[in-house]
Specification:
Elements: H1 33-38, H2 40-44, E1 47-50, E2 58-61, E3 78-79, E4 83-84, E5 87-88, H3 95-99, H4 109-121
């Protein structure tokens, strides 16, 4: 899936914008909608994001979550990336980084409180657990 966003200033004056756009959640490979909705808290313990510091986050599940006797390693995953004028953009992979503890995603509390630049410089939790506190509130977390 690809998406292109175009913003047109219809006013007479110039605008200076800082923009945050993207999906709230990207489910890893082999996690279907039914599993994510019905076992959300359990399945989060198996999910992780790797390579997000390099701007190419890879969303994966560590092992099969099927109700079977044998557990198998899952190597596949889903990735996301963003560009602006040919330049790769930084990635925010944890909804908590933007919304804080608002798990309904109604208002971006962290974005309003600390701003985009601070959010991008914070170390992000990559185990995608909804209850995890955002990095700016964790003691001992240092910016990247």
């Amino acid at each position: 899936m690809a998406r292109r966003v175009t913003i047109t200033n219809l006013g007479k004056g110039s605008l200076k914008l800082k923009m945050l756009d993207g999906l709230l959640v990207i489910c890893p490979f082999r996690i279907d909608d039914l599993t994510f909705k019905n076992m959300g808290r359990t399945i989060e313990a198996w999910m992780e994001v790797v390579n997000h510091v390099d701007g190419l986050p890879f969303f994966r599940i560590k092992a099969s979550a099927d109700d079977k006797l044998h557990v198998e390693e899952i190597k596949a995953g889903n990735f996301a990336l963003s560009f602006h004028e040919g330049k790769k953009l930084a990635a925010l992979v944890a909804p908590q980084a933007v919304f804080g503890m608002d798990t309904a995603f109604n208002f971006p509390k962290n974005l309003a409180a600390i701003g985009l630049r601070s959010m991008l410089s914070d170390v992000q939790g990559t185990l995608l657990r909804k209850s995890e506190k955002p990095p700016s509130q964790k003691p001992g977390c240092n910016p990247i």
